[in-house]
Amino acid sequence: GAGVSQSPSNKVTEKGKDVELRCDPISGHTALYWYRQSLGQGLEFLIYFQGNSAPDKSGLPSDRFSAERTGGSVSTLTIQRTQQEDSAVYLCASSLTLHSNQPQHFGDGTRLSIL
Amino acid sequence: AQKITQTQPGMFVQEKEAVTLDCTYDTSDQSYGLFWYKQPSSGEMIFLIYQGSYDEQNATEGRYSLNFQKARKSANLVISASQLGDSAMYFCAMREGQMKTSYDKVIFGPGTSLSVIP
Fold it and tell me: Which of residues 56-115 of B touch A (CB under 8 A)?
């Protein structure tokens, strides 16, 4: 597709369940980013990938969060044993490279609600 | 320390008027990029404009222009001839340097909510 695609668009799940969020970046974009946005808040950086490699995982909120990217394309963000504070919109973005002049193109996000 | 500061949590502007949204940033890097994004109530993040730290001219994109004052570390967004569709959250963002593996991410400010009044 032309833009960044995220699925599902909405996810409602019970506390304690695992969830997997998917991001399909723009074709050819080597850099991929995950952010979290709580209601009425700014963007909280979670993790980025250059190719399949994630050099900096310090932004992940806890060890319940993990992310991977395979084939330099699709990425999945997994949250294990979900908690209510995990409820947020999870945004994925991609950019052509990591160069400082490259804008990020965002997907529409996954709205995660933990009951 | 806050890297990106947007001091206006909410702004109002009359339709067809111009409005300036403030952004100041903090970096010790010489090479960096500054971005503005728009987020309507529908939630998508829309890239508006980019300014490189070495760019001598202020960036312009249609009705958007960036008032870049490097010495003051400010990158204010100016929207001319406001339209009702401009009502949204606006985020200022910065990417420092290039390929710093320990800290290569885009940092976003807290945002400014702009409401355009008919």
Answer: 91, 95-99, 101-111
